[in-house]
Amino acid sequence: MTDRLDVRKTYKLFIGGAFPRSESGRTYEVSSSRGKFLANASKASRKDARDAVGAARKAFGGWSKRTPYNRGQILYRVAEVLEGRRDQLVAEVRAAEGVSERRAIAIVDAAVDTWVWYAGWADKLSQVTGNANQVNGPFFNLTSPEPTGVVAIAAPQDSSLLGLVEVLAPVLLSGNTAVVVSSYERPLPAITLSEILSTSDVPGGVVNILTGDIVEVGPWIASHLDVNALDLTGVVDPDVARDLEAEAAVNLKRVLRPGTPTAQSLARITPFLEHKTVWHPIGV
Question: Which residues cross the membrane (predicted)?
């Protein structure tokens, strides 16, 4: 019996709910922590970044107008599918991060639990971050949270799945859409997540995942006028982070700087909210 040849996979980008090849046609090799070839990943270009932002902007209106309860249901469904592909994700995390099987299982379980935790916040956020304000006059004064818009995310480089979930889920639950640049050396769990999103109830364009180098595509995303906020959690080089923050100033984007804790917290949600205050006369 002859040995079978490996089927070498070449993964694509995830933009607008579809899986296009990189416009540039470029790919790069993804290797395990031990240097073994795993797959080829598309290397996103400037045009791919623009396409991803355009898809996120187009999807924002529909996603932000859904009821918080419905968004929570949709995100919870993603957690269910993540759980269903647990074995695949464990294998990918083991290969990417060089951890034991027990540790990989714990990481995947934590990623699912984190996604569920944030999904549960979708219909509770308004009650916690909004309020009725006390005013000196015959008025109701009500403040309610609204999504910022399109959020560009540099995913953590070392934590291929859990780190990605920790930065993506808190952006989505409030109605924002996202453009994510995945870990460069460890993109396979992000690619699997894109496949999960494409078969879940998340509308196309709500999440767009680019594989490639944040140093290359980051400036085009950070300076794009249709991007409203920038999460630099996954940017390792402080000089690159500084340059991207400077690019973001072109339209006064909200910026979450590197070093911000990624653990489950309301503080991961609120940077990507706007607050609208309405005055209404009493008795009218």
Answer: none
Tokens of 89: 């994700």
The structural architecture, per CATH, of the domain 38-125+147-273 is 3-Layer(aba) Sandwich (3.40)
SS3 per residue for the chain? CCCCCCCCCEECCEECCECCCCCCCCEEEEECCCCCEEEEEECCCHHHHHHHHHHHHHHHHHHHHCCHHHHHHHHHHHHHHHHHCHHHHHHHHHHHHCCCHHHHHHHHHHHHHHHHHHHHHCCCHHHHHCEECCCCCCEEEEEEEEECCEEEEECCCCCCCHHHHHHHHHHHCCCCEEEEECCCCCCHHHHHHHHHHHCCCCCCCCEEEECCCHHHHHHHHHCCCCCCEEECCCCCCHHHHHHHHHHHHHHCCEEECCCCCCCCCHHHCHHHEEEEEEEEECCC
Per-residue model confidence as pLDDT tens digits over 82-91: 999 999 999 9
Give CA–CA dist 68/48, Å, rounded: 30
